[in-house]
Amino acid sequence: MAPLRLAMVAACKRVAESTRFQLFILGVIVVNAVVLGLETYDAIDEEVGSTLNVLNDVFLGIFVVEIAIRIAAHGSRPQDYFKNGWNVFDFIIIGGAFVPGLRQNTTALRVLRLLRIVRVVSLFPDLRFLIRGMAASLPPIGSMAMLTSLLIYIYGMLGWILYADTNPAHWGDIGQAMLSLFIVLTLESWPEIMGEVIGDHPWAWVYFVSYVLIASFLLINMVIAILINSLEEVRAMEAIEKRLENRRAERDADGELGGKAAAERLLRIREALDELEDELHLDGHLETPKGKRDGPRMIRRFRG
Fold this sequence. Notes:
Elements: H1 2-17, H2 19-38, H3 42-72, H4 85-95, H5 106-118, H6 120-123, H7 125-136, H8 138-163, H9 168-171, H10 174-185, H11 190-198, H12 204-256, H13 260-282, H14 290-303
């Protein structure tokens, strides 16, 4: 039974890691997305709604088989499947369809079906890398958001002091002034906003140009730098995680094969010791004084 079980585990692992299997699941997700889109048309839903529901059940069955294969690929340690956050995400989305009450709730069921499309992220390492990089950049970007809010507030107060009487529609109070500056931050229509006050305030261009340079260019570039730095950190962490995963796989393989790899390494060590002992014999070291004869004796003791 053990060889059969090992063969099944190896087969599941090959399937789970194969490119064809990945492309097949990707195709199912894309078709699932098309079916979900067709359900939004009342005419189509009334005509072939039952067929679309059957297709959704077929997709669910395929995803269940996919997860079963991926879990079986871990052999005697199926719990290792849940060590990956994306695997947990997939399991919750697919398993949620079997929770009592959800299948009767049309809205919840449609949300679960919609989330299946998000699973496309878990199939592509590059997409997972980008998502993890953006998530890792959230804390420093939060600090940047606070800095940006402070800058908008300061410039908003200054704009209210300078331009409230000239253009109350944009600068009549601090809230309206901050909203106007947020529009300027997007570089949308800011020349028009500046043009409404520059006739009465010829030096208004200094206010607007300085704000655009600081808020739009400097802060945005800082955000880009944060994102790039976070992506590099995530890349380094993924490399470390990959090495650890490979080491765990090697240890699991040693355990599954009864220590065969360890035995092979021990055999190579003994062969190296044999070669070393032969060299010592050829060099006449065994006939040297007692202190130098200890080396071959220790080798023979280790080999024994």
